[in-house]
Write a structure and sequence with these properties.
This protein is of the alpha/beta class. Helices cover 36% and strands 16% of the residues. Helix 2 crosses helix 12 (270-293) and helix 10 (235-246) packs parallel to helix 12. The radius of gyration is 21 Å and the shape is globular.
Length: 396
């Protein structure tokens, strides 16, 4: 009898240490609007730059596990970003435009709160405003995803340790009469810093920190921009800062969004999409480098909330990049300090000359890819719905 008890105890101890346990470090990358063709376009461009017809890979397409995710919302075959992000964070379908609430407008609990309660530190990182739909779904609840200031006011209640992005939309509220966002967040327990230098100084004493771009200091961030300020940190730098701040002593979860993939696709700007996907992949590479140091304890998932633009590579007899490698135009853009010189019709013509098709300036109902590596990655292969993601992430 004693031997049986000892055997049972050993079995339980082994089970508790097995690969069935949840990963200690979890990275969820969301390429906003990034469908299969957006990924293929970026890889094809890398091959073109090397003088090849194909074969180059992004970091995340080399991950061992892959699958597909359906994205429809509660009330529409084509989801909006807030409904898709709510599905990611709560496992519940909701109406387009709703954020962190069910179809009846009742607040939903998100899995990041559960992770925090179980001892995980939380980091929310994006290349767009921190109160935009995708990052906001991880901490806010609202029937109107565009009520940015009210969403911002919900951030402190999350208690999440690290936020980073392009700043905040509606910095002083829609009426521009509210307490400015920096003062509000600092009054409620967060150290707010603009740029890498302030971050390096404040992280030495802060328990919770928000990192924004230097160029967005004390201002509202809302406009779509691909051309970055020289002082701006790219997504990989923001992620590196998050990993540095959270450390590796305690478990952590990091959501990292490449938001401008979607914005560029909304305008059917092929090369801007490619640029955005490549920057997104650069951030994934940072997480992969972390994974190589903590292979048995790290999980990385890369996916999208929906596809944007209905991108098609090839129509008629043409598909390629030579005329899209806009060397002369880029020189002109640099002189003017902008990248939006091409109007819609000019951009459409360039796409057509290169056999690149776009069906819409909005979202589509296409499935999106899922790539994963590390502890528990096998749960993310095959086909599943976006509402399945929280349970897969929380599984032990």
């Amino acid at each position: 009898m004693k031997k049986n008890c000892i055997l049972l105890l050993c079995l339980l101890m082994f089970t508790g240490c097995s690969s069935g346990n949840r990963a200690k470090y979890i990275f969820l990358f969301i390429g906003d609007g990034m469908g299969n063709s957006h990924v293929s376009a970026a890889e094809s461009y890398l091959s073109y730059k090397e003088g090849k017809t194909g074969g180059d890979r992004l970091t995340f397409t080399g991950f061992p596990e892959s699958g597909f995710c359906t994205t429809y919302s509660y009330d529409h075959q084509i989801t909006g970003s807030s409904a898709a992000a709510t599905a990611f964070t709560t496992g519940t379908k909701t109406r387009n435009g709703y954020l962190g609430e069910d179809p009846e407008g009742r607040p939903l609990e998100n899995f990041t709160a559960k992770l925090k309660d179980s001892g995980y530190k939380i980091g929310i990182i994006t290349s767009v405003p921190i109160n935009n739909a995708t990052p906001a779904a991880f901490y806010a609840h609202d029937r109107n995803r565009y009520d940015y200031y009210r969403i911002t006011k919900q951030l402190p209640a999350s208690g999440f340790e690290f936020f980073a992005g392009d700043g905040f939309s509606d910095f002083n509220g829609k009426d521009k009469k509210q307490l400015n966002t920096t003062d509000y967040l600092e009054k409620n327990g967060y150290a707010v810093c603009y740029g890498k230098k302030e971050f390096s100084d404040k992280m030495k004493y802060a328990d919770k920190i928000i990192l924004c771009q230097e160029a967005d200091r004390d201002s509202s961030m809302s406009d779509y921009e691909i051309k970055r300020e020289k002082s701006d940190m790219d997504l990989s730098c923001l992620l590196e800062s998050g990993i540095e701040f959270l450390g590796d002593e305690k478990p952590f979860f990091i959501m990292c969004e490449g938001g401008e993939i979607d914005w560029a696709a909304h305008e059917n700007h092929t090369m801007d999409v490619v640029d955005a996907v490549l920057r997104f992949d650069k951030a994934v590479q940072k997480a992969y480098e972390f994974y190589l140091k903590h292979k048995k304890e790290t999980l990385i998932i890369v996916t999208a909330d929906h596809e944007t633009g209905g991108l098609t590579l090839g129509f008629g007899k043409t598909w390629g990049y030579p005329k899209l490698d806009w060397g002369d135009l880029e020189t002109e853009w640099e002189k003017e300090g902008r990248r939006d010189t091409l109007d819609y019709e000019s951009n459409k013509k360039l796409n057509e000359e290169n056999g690149i098709g776009w069906t819409t300036l909005s979202h589509t109902g296409a499935m999106v890819p899922v790539f994963s590596i590390g502890k528990g990655a096998e749960r993310f292969k095959g086909m599943f719905d976006n509402t399945d993601i929280p349970a897969k992430l929380l599984a032990k």
